Amino acid sequence: MDFKVDLFLGGVCFLTGPHPKLDTVSQSELVLKSGIKCIQLREKNATRREIYQTAIRLRELTAKYKARLIVNDHPDIALAADADGVHLGQEDFPLEDARRIMGRKIIGISTHSMEEALAAERGGADYIGVGPVFKTRTKDLGPGKGLFFLKEIREKISIPIMAIGGITPEDLPDIFVAGANAVAVSGAILDGDVFENAKRFAEGVRKQPKSP
C-alpha cells in the first residue's frame, strides 16, 4: 500500500478509550460515521482475549467504512484480527521482532525524544507518534513538549509523523504547519458528543493543506 496516502490522507486517528455510556465498538462507529478513517484500538484494562474479540469486531466495522485499524501493543492480536497494523510504545514489543511477525503491515512507534524518533526510523517503523505536544489528561506524560519540538523532529525524520497529546480542532493549523502528517486524538473526542467532536476534527483536517 502507499502508506502516506492510505493512512494519513484522512489526517486524524481516533484512539479508543473509556466512556461512561459507549463501549469501544459503539464509540468507534460514531467516529467512523463522522468521516474519520483510522481507528486505533487502545485497551489497557482488558484481557488479551477481550482485546482480540474487540479487534475482530472493529475489523468488520472499519472494513464497512473503508477505514484503517491499528491495534496498540499486541502484534500477534493485530495479525490474527487482520488489522492494518500495530502501534508500539517504548516499553512494548521490540520493533525488530514485531516486523518479523507483522511482515509488510504498518508498525508505528511512540516517541518522546529526538533519539527515540531517530531510532524508530532506523529500525524500520512506518510512522512515529510524537508527543505529548500539549499536556493531556488521557495519559500522564508530563508537560507538553510544544510545537517547536515537533518542528525539530520533522527536520530530522522523513517517515510520517502522528502528533498526539491534548490536541483540539483549533490546534490543527499549527500542528500541520509544524510538520505533522496526522493527529491522534482520544479525550477531545470522547468528552461530550462523540459524533460532533469527531466531525469537528474530520472537517478541520480537510481544511488543512497537505502536510509534507
The count of β-strands is 8
Biggest β-sheet, characterized? 8 strands, parallel, barrel
Number of domains: 1
Order of helical and strand elements: HEHEHEHEHEHEHEHEHH
Q: Mind sketching the topology for me?
A:
Elements (H helix, E strand, L loop, with lengths): L2 H6 L3 E4 L8 H10 L4 E4 L6 H17 L3 E5 L2 H6 L4 E4 L6 H8 L3 E6 L2 H9 L4 E4 L15 H11 L4 E4 L7 H6 L4 E4 L1 H4 L3 H13 L6
Parallel strand pairs: 1-2, 1-8, 2-3, 3-4, 4-5, 5-6, 6-7, 7-8
Helix pairs in contact: 2-3, 2-10
Describe this structure in words.
This protein is an alpha/beta fold. The chain has a single domain (3-206), classed as TIM Barrel. Helix content is 42%, strand content 17%. The chain has ten helices and eight strands. The chain has helices spanning 3-8, 24-33, 48-64, 75-80, 95-102, 114-122, 146-156, 172-177, 187-190, 194-206; strands at 12-15, 38-41, 68-72, 85-88, 106-111, 127-130, 161-164, 182-185. Strands 1-2-3-4-5-6-7-8 form an eight-stranded parallel beta barrel, surrounded by six helices. Strand 3, helix 4 (75-80) and strand 4 form a beta-alpha-beta unit. Helix 2 packs parallel to helix 3 (48-64) and helix 2 (24-33) packs across helix 10 (194-206). The longest helix has 17 residues, at 48-64. It is globular and about 40 Å long.
